[in-house]
Amino acid sequence: MQVKGFILLRWNINVEFTFFDRSLVDRVRSNDPNYIRRCIRDEMYGTSVTVVLIGNNTYKSQWVGSEIEESVERGNGLLGIRLKGKSGVRVPEQLKDYGARVMNRNPHSFEDAIEMAAKETGR
Questions:
Q1: Which domain holds residue 58?
Q2: Rounded to two decimals, what is the model's pTM?
């Protein structure tokens, strides 16, 4: 639900935060790894920054890792945002490996952080 809440922030009049969403909010209903990777790639078309929302088990997900790898291959900026109440959770290793900024949830800082991630990759 927090992921869906994050997406809804762009319509919150109390938060200056505008973005284009291409997320896979709902789980891909397949066990075919090639199909899942294709879904990830398809959702990244037209993006410049990949925001990884970090919860308790995000670091364990092979698909989050695949999303990060695809983002780097495309030249996207990377930003990790810990979900509300998850300030101490483990960060996916790939975010660390690529030097991505990781921040705690603060809607008033999201826009600047996303812009910074885009600029770091020249986008």
A1: 2-120
A2: 0.81
